[in-house]
Amino acid sequence: MVGSVFILKNSNNMEEAQAFTEELMSSSLRHHESLYGVITQLKNNGKSIGLYCKFDNSENVTRRITGGPALNYYENYIYFSLIQNKIETLSKLNKRIIDLMKCVSGIEPFGGASLSRDKKAIYGITKLDTLEVIEIIMKNGENDIKRCLNSTENIEIKEVSNINPNKQIIDSYKADSWIRYGAKSLQYKYDVNKKGFNVEISASVYENYIKEIQITGNFYASPPMEPINALISLQGTPINEVYFYGVKGRLKKIEFEGIDKEAISSALDGIYKILLTKQ
Length: 279
Prior knowledge:
Elements (H helix, E strand, L loop, with lengths): L2 E6 L5 H16 L5 E7 L4 E4 L11 E3 L7 E3 L4 E8 L4 H16 L7 E3 L4 E9 L2 E8 L3 H11 L2 E6 L6 H8 L1 H4 L8 E7 L2 E10 L2 E10 L1 E3 L3 H7 L8 H11 L3 E3 L3 H16 L3
Parallel strand pairs: 1-2, 1-10, 3-4
Antiparallel strand pairs: 2-6, 3-5, 6-9, 7-8, 8-9, 11-12, 12-13, 14-15
């Protein structure tokens, strides 16, 4: 099957580009082995963050679909997404994207980012069952993307204008409820860093119960929301090893890239030991 990558002639806000990507995600689900992509100039200044990255309440914070590193971007940055319906592991997908990043930027990514004096690029991944979404924000020109895609994929590149993504989807990317998936650290925290990636687990307590707990950082996971859901299950429970052991079991079933399962487990053990001393 020949893939289609759409170059949007007009510059777009981040949420408009994301909305168009989400519409292509729906199309991809209907066709196995399908491949779609979006390339557009970003026209508004702001900050792009990954699913697990913290945000600092600064203005113009924009959510991304994927986990990955943060990058401040300006008007000359390009947004590129690639959507595919394919059966493969998160590890294999990540290796493919690393090769694409090396081709586009000329530098092997470290911690999800390829940074040099004149070229900057970060990437994020969402993998949910067979649906794969990568997002790259870069300072490179679109010719770098087209050259690298033509060497690795069977694609047709199309220029389009006057796109009108679903307004409800656009508005959803602006909503506070979406942004809050990234969050400031809570009262107590423990973090683990590894080769440019990191994970932080933080919590607040009431008496000997966990009031809130969350996981943030720079890493990739599949299913993408499952690390967050696993930790949230501890809210309202006593600070007890049995409950934490159950969460460890859930985390073992999740695919991780950037941060491995041992690092996640270490962060969970770390916050548990801190909370024990606060009872």
